[in-house]
Amino acid sequence: MDQSEGIAGLTPVSVFITRDLTERSARSYTEENLGRPADPMSEYSIGIEDHYAWANLVSVTTSGPNEILLDKRRVKLLDQQLTASPYHHKTLQMPLTGGEKLVRDVKTSANKRAKLALSSLIGELAPAKCRGIAIRVPPLPDLPATVAEVHANTWIMNRADGMIYHQALTQAAARLNLRVFYFEKDNVLELAAQARRKTARDLERQLKAFGTTLGPPWRKGHVVACAGAIFAHVSAAPLRPKKARQKGRA
Predict the structure, then answer these.
(1) Long-range contacts at 153-156 (CB < 8 A, ≥ 24 apart)
(2) What are phi and psi of 245, to 5 degrees?
(3) Cβ atoms within 10 A of the Cβ of 160, count?
(4) 201 burial class (0-12, 13-18, 19+ CB within 10 angstroms)?
(5) Could you tell me which of 185, 186, 198, 164 has the C-alpha nearest to residue 54?
(6) Is 111 in contact with 166 (CB distance < 8 Å)?
(7) What's the gap between Cα 80 and its chain centre?
(8) Which of 171, 226, 195, 248 minimizes the C-alpha distance to 14?
(9) Checking DSSP bridges between strand 3-6 and strand 43-50, what pairing results, if any?
(10) pTM over 0.90, yes/no
(11) Do residues 125 and 59 touch, judged by C-beta distance below 8 A?
């Protein structure tokens, strides 16, 4: 059974959170989207730390200067009888037809469980609205069409199994009409801090302290996922309408 803690045909709109964020873009996020009063439970974003056959989901919102952790849970992304790494293990010793079937079965299970995990979380946090998910940049641009193509390239084969679960999560988000934000692990904390007008050290300290809110486990991957969720949450916030200029004033 999946562990959860906390309060009880489409293409994803994808945004890459990268080193190339310009100073002007960062300033627009902070100046236009922060500092206004908000119901902490009105909207939130989900940060994801994905692994082989499972993932950690953290749901985060902001209220004024505060970041708030609403929920954390570990979810299974594969039926128990299936192998978590079909490309890298079992298919190497199987006939091609059997290998293709095994990979299809793993993908089908991962897709089903990913959609169930996200939809269940969203349902439990309703009536609050999810702005989107944040997840690391995908390990591959896409999965090759056949098992043979994967086996022909060691670099691809070392990443293909992880891509199954990453893709299952992003495609599930698309089916649920959620925006998808991709982040790089090595700089997302800094970008989240910049968007929140804080130092990276202060934000990291706050995120690490979340571990005492809902209890262990709370590791570096949770912190990174939270940072991704925070940046995505600020990025996806609707802009405040500019005040109309009064006549007779410059």
Answers:
(1) none
(2) -75, 130
(3) 24
(4) exposed
(5) 164
(6) no
(7) 24
(8) 171
(9) unpaired
(10) no
(11) yes
The two tokens of residue 181 are 């934000």
Type of residue at 175: R
Q: pLDDT tens digit string along 165-203?
A: 999 999 999 999 999 999 999 999 999 999 999 999 999
Q: How far apart are CA 202 and CA 42, in angstroms?
A: 25
Q: What are phi and psi of 57, to 5 degrees?
A: -115, 130
- Per-residue HEC secondary structure of the chain comes to CCEEEECCCCCCCEEEECCCCCHHHHHHHHHHHCCCCCCCCCEEEEEEEECCCEEEEEEEEEECCEEEEEEEEEEECCCCCCCCCCCCCHHHHCCHHHHHHHHHHHHHHHHHHHHHHHHHHHHHHCCCEEEEEEEECCCCCCCCCCHHHHHCCHHHHHHHHHHHHHHHHHHHHHHCCCEEEEECCCCHHHHHHHHCCCCHHHHHHHHHHCHHHHCCCCCHHHHHHHHHHHHHHHHCCCCCCCCCCCCCCC
Terminal-to-terminal C-alpha distance of the chain: 63
Per-residue pLDDT of 12-61, as tens digits, reads 334 444 333 323 233 333 333 333 334 545 899 999 999 999 999 999 99
